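The pair is set out directly below:
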Amino acid sequence: MSDTTSSPLPRRIADSYVDALVELDPLAGTYLGVAESHSRLPDFSPAGQEAVAALARTTLERLAEAEARPGADDEAERRCARLLRERLTAELAVHDAGEGLRNLNNLFSPPQAVRAIFTVTPNETTEDWSRIAERLRAVPACLDGYRAALAEGLKRQLPAGPRQVTTVIGQLDTWVGTDRSWFAAFAADGPAELRSELDSAAAHATAAFEDLRDWLRDHYAPAVEGAPDIVGRERYARWVRSYNGTDLDLDEAYAYGWSEFHRLLGEMRAEAEKILPGTADDPWKAIAHLDEHGHHLEGVDAARNWLQELMDEAIEALDGTHFDLAERVKRVESRIAPAGSAAAPYYTQPSADFSRPGMTWLPATAEDRYPVYDLVSTWYHEGVPGHHLQLAQWTHVADRLSRYQASIGMVSANAEGWALYAERLMDELGFLTDAERRIGYLDAQMMRAVRVIIDIGMHLELRIPADSPFHPGERWTPELAEEFFGRHSGRPADFVESELIRYLGMPGQAIGYKLGERAWLRGREAARAAHGDAFDPKRWHMAALSLGSLGLDDLEEELARL
């Protein structure tokens, strides 16, 4: 939607921002389903980053003018204005601190974003593949700009963490391959009439990723050797605002993480005793037993199909009882993640017109063996009623909100908090039908509590409490964090390592799951208290899912009013 009025209100300002941002960030355009974006890649150079920041500054100026106009106090306008101001202010704080000049991590930095965009670019027609070929040819210039940003970061003494560098080099090794690159394999699915063009374009993309890998290995890694992996309180607080939409009391949040740890440990002990008597003192022994002897799936096809059935069954059971779902929201697809992805499952939102559905992504394992206890609540989180129901509903009601509220303006802690709330909801509704599934759910909840403890603890170098079962009185380090996570998780060692690197590279993001869930629960309880016996969970859920994005500062307040 273009700004065609002389006196636009906040929602029009927000959508004008989306239009302008898509011009600067074609990755966002592809996720939104903008066809003109599918052949292009962003400019990650310092100049490209500054262009995005300049757009944010200009938009904030226009927003201030819009908020002074008649009609800006309308509830829909007010809510959009609060989100837009909070998000752009948080993003500018990150930019102005130079964080984009050391943007390197194992999940969401430019190398992963560039590779991942090809998995969601339309590829059904010859014209689609022609655009893909053009996008593949854009990879070298895109990565050159990114490398220039990292080089500028070195000049300004803004290094990425050494563990991030080592991890990304390993990812790039996987993607470029030895006999055949990921890009060559991807392009091989294209039409025969474009075979030569696609093969050539894939070779250009592969060479660009090889060049980036070699530069990171030979130049960047030696330059950042000895730099800290942790970020300290000032940088951490800035990232907390960015990912959570609030300025947290970090010491209170750290204490909350420990309280949840102790609560969940008690529940896990009860379930462990049902699974394997004698394991109450160490519930993860029961989980290890399930790894060998519990219900499991063999092969990626069996896992993908089973997860599709799980989501389809959840939609059928929940629609009309606890949710009221539009037909297009009911479509979600189970997929297998590309090789070289991080170890955690993830979800991608549908395009604005739903031509690309919402999709869950399961990383393949070396053994192609998938224990069910570890999948059920995870797919309630990633799929239904978790990320898919929220983000697809945002897309469905975007015309009542703004495109910004339904997409670009997403606050991580809002979305992750809903998804964790969704896991708990399914437990409340009785969908975790046996001890095996329930201990998997509790283990997943425990992981989110542990995230709060170690993410805050290691970045701020806090002291471990005296009542901790683990190294009481010592100060957190990444090494202690990895050991603690490994002892209090049913996940394999490679997953634990991948997660720890994620927390170091994305400070403040991982705490949003548990703290976001707390905001959703508090908001629901406040609404229930206000309505008494007239509280209608289905009406509340749909109203809550139709709010669009909100930071945690605003989320609890808005939920309580529903």
User: Anything to note?
Assistant: The radius of gyration is 23 Å. Residues 1-5 have pLDDT under 50 and may be disordered. The beta strands are 296-298, 332-336, 346-348, 358-362, 369-371.
